[in-house]
């Protein structure tokens, strides 16, 4: 779960813009006491579907579907990281696991997902949530 401020930082917009998106129903959120909280998956999906205005960077073009490009393109390794983070920042779905073509592929999905889960957990511990 992310706060409005954390969501704004990830989206590259102001907290007021995040609240406006919530009010307009364009970004799912729920109240926790007096504060809005957003699912990290919803924020990452918004980033993927609604890129920022202006010319996209090479890394963001890679992350939005040019995975078939040669990895020699400038920024490609960073794009791979961002794409993996967007796809695996949550537990892989049953459908994703069923589509795995081998046990090794399924284990890879779980390992990458576990990595990002541990990163998020460490961040929450650092913030004093746990």
TrEMBL record:
Q: Which Pfam families match?
A: HTH_17
Q: Which GO terms describe its molecular function?
A: DNA binding
Start and end residues of each stretch annotated as Disordered: 55-76
Entries under InterPro entries matching the protein: HTH_17 (IPR041657), SinI_DNA-bd (IPR010093)
List residues of the Helix-turn-helix domain.
1-45
**What's the protein called, per UniProt?**
Excisionase family DNA binding domain-containing protein
Q: Name its species.
A: Adlercreutzia caecimuris B7
């Amino acid at each position: 779960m992310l706060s409005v401020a954390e969501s704004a930082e990830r989206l590259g917009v102001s907290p007021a813009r995040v609240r406006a998106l919530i009010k307009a129903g364009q970004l799912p959120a729920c109240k926790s006491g007096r504060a809005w909280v957003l699912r990290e998956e919803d924020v990452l999906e918004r980033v993927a579907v609604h890129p920022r205005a202006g010319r996209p960077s090479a890394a963001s073009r890679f992350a939005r579907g040019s995975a078939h490009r040669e990895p020699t393109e400038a920024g490609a390794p960073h794009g791979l990281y961002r794409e993996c983070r967007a796809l695996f920042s949550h537990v892989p779905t049953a459908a994703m696991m069923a589509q795995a073509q081998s046990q090794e592929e399924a284990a890879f999905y779980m390992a990458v997902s576990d990595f990002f889960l541990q990163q998020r957990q460490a961040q929450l511990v650092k913030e004093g949530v746990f």
